[in-house]
Write a structure and sequence with these properties.
Elements: E1 6-9, H1 13-24, E2 29-33, E3 44-47, H2 49-57, H3 61-67, E4 69-70, E5 73-78, E6 83-88, H4 89-93, E7 100-103, H5 104-114, E8 118-120, E9 124-129, E10 134-138, E11 143-146, E12 148-151, H6 158-163, E13 170-181, E14 190-195, E15 199-207, E16 210-218, H7 229-236, H8 242-250, E17 258-264, E18 271-272, E19 275-277, H9 280-283, H10 292-309, H11 313-343, H12 346-365
Helix pairs in contact: 1-5, 1-10, 2-3, 2-10, 10-11
The structure holds flavin-adenine dinucleotide (FAD).
Flavin-adenine dinucleotide is lined by residues 9-15, 32-35, 45-46, 123-124, 152-154, 158, 176, 262, 279-281, 287, 290-294, 296.
Length: 372
């Protein structure tokens, strides 16, 4: 496609990866981010090998590799620590790339360093389009015309609301508490899911002596006030094994813990005229495969490639959707299946994990080893 004026809305994983991918193909884009400062929430994140493959193509794979921790195994344990299933990640992913645990701020820093300049503290408030342009209005009172607008503004996307028949996210029946702490002893080399009844506690090393802890509880949505949040979290997981308790003991303050409800989109929207959605804005799903960030990065890379290579916008959109839809649908469907499996009573779930957990796990992730 010829040189175009492109607006990216949202400076999360999807928006920054797209800005970088476009920049590397000499396609100019402007990025606006609603927050006045970069404050990625959620503590840590698993950057899986298919995401590392994208980051290497964007030229920042080695930075992320060095800034995080390499993870070699994915373990499921019961709540006391007994091993139910151990998946060696190298045998699953082969040469696709390493599996990295990393603090979200470090991942953001790496993406930010490679992206173009961004306008912070500015959000899109309205969009209108005709055959030739999209007019975007911003919260600072400015309005500008673009050839293409990409909504990378997350599960509660404004772009989706103003440019598409609105789809509100639905509550997934789970609440999650995420934090970074310091486990005593040597750094883990595995991501571990300790499974209880209607809840689990996850641990993932993220480098620099830090561990990412994520506590997940099946429950109706509720507000968990900041005051005494740590005490309540410790109580909730008091019956769990030593590693989980050690992790919770390492936390010092309520404000180290970010609490959120899990939400996803019941329907996907990909494009409408000159507006395209990527990442969570398009297809937020249950996070149980830890693939949301990977899908956002893959979207970004594939969109940059198709915008660069296709002769016109309709062809680029068609090629983008053709390369992404079934892969994203697979992840959504499999994440939902994992979510349902984890909610089963331990008496059913644990024997199933012992017997066929490894096989099922590999079956779920194997299609993602191919390049998108
Ligand atoms: C509990 C949990 C654990 C997870 N764990 C993992 C994991 O281990 N690995 C993994 O790969 N994925 C994981 N995910 C999923 C992953 O976090 C998301 O899929 C990913 O962050 C999506 O990136 P995004 O850029 O599409 O959206 P976001 O990260 O939501 O970024 C959107 C950006 O847009 C900005 N914005 C919003 N509205 C506007 C506006 N109107 N104008 C301008 N800017 C705007 C926001 O401020 C934000 O910066 C997890 C998710 C959850 C909930």
């Amino acid at each position: 496609m010829q040189s175009r004026r492109i607006l990216i809305v949202g400076g999360g994983i999807a928006g920054l990866a797209l800005a970088t991918a476009l920049c590397r193909r000499a396609l100019d884009a402007e990025l606006v981010e609603r927050e006045p400062r970069w404050t990625p929430v959620g503590g840590g994140i698993a950057v899986q090998p298919n995401a590392m493959r994208v980051l290497h193509e964007l030229g920042i794979g080695s930075i992320v590799d060095r800034a995080g921790a390499r993870v070699h195994h994915w373990l499921f344990r019961d709540q006391h620590g007994e091993l139910l299933c151990d998946i060696a990640l190298k045998s699953l992913w082969g040469e696709v790339g390493p599996f990295i645990g990393i603090a979200r701020t470090k991942l953001h820093d790496a993406l930010l360093a490679a992206a173009l300049s961004c306008r912070l503290g500015v959000s899109v408030t309205a969009l209108s389009q005709d055959e030739h342009h999209v007019l975007a209005s911003f919260s600072d009172g400015i309005a500008r015309e673009y050839d293409l607008v990409i909504g990378a503004d997350g599960v509660h996307s404004t772009v989706r609301r103003v440019a598409f028949a609105s789809t509100d996210p639905v509550f997934g029946g789970q609440m999650v508490w995420r934090s970074l702490g310091k486990l005593p002893g040597p750094q883990l080399d595995s991501v571990q899911f300790w499974l209880g009844e209607g809840c689990f506690f996850g641990l993932c090393p993220v480098g620099n002596g830090l561990t990412y802890g994520f506590a997940n509880v099946t429950t109706p949505r509720f507000h968990d006030p900041l005051e005494s949040r740590l005490e309540r979290l410790r109580l909730r997981f008091a019956d769990f094994g030593p590693l989980v308790r050690d992790y919770l003991d390492s936390l010092e303050r309520d404000d180290q813990i970010h609490c959120t409800s899990i939400e996803w989109l019941p329907y996907e929207h990909w494009h409408s005229g000159r507006v395209i959605l990527i990442g969570d804005a398009a297809h937020a799903s249950s996070p149980m495969m830890g693939q949301g960030g990977s899908m956002a990065m893959e979207d970004a890379l594939v969109l940059a490639e198709t915008l660069d290579e296709a002769p016109n916008l309709p062809a680029a959109k068609e090629a983008f959707v053709a390369r992404r839809r079934s892969r994203v649908a697979w992840v959504r469907q499999q994440s939902q299946a994992v979510s349902e499996m984890l909610r089963l009573p331990a008496s059913v779930r644990d024997p199933a994990l012992r017997e066929s957990g490894k096989y099922r796990f590999c079956e779920r992730f194997a299609p993602l080893t191919a390049r998108p």
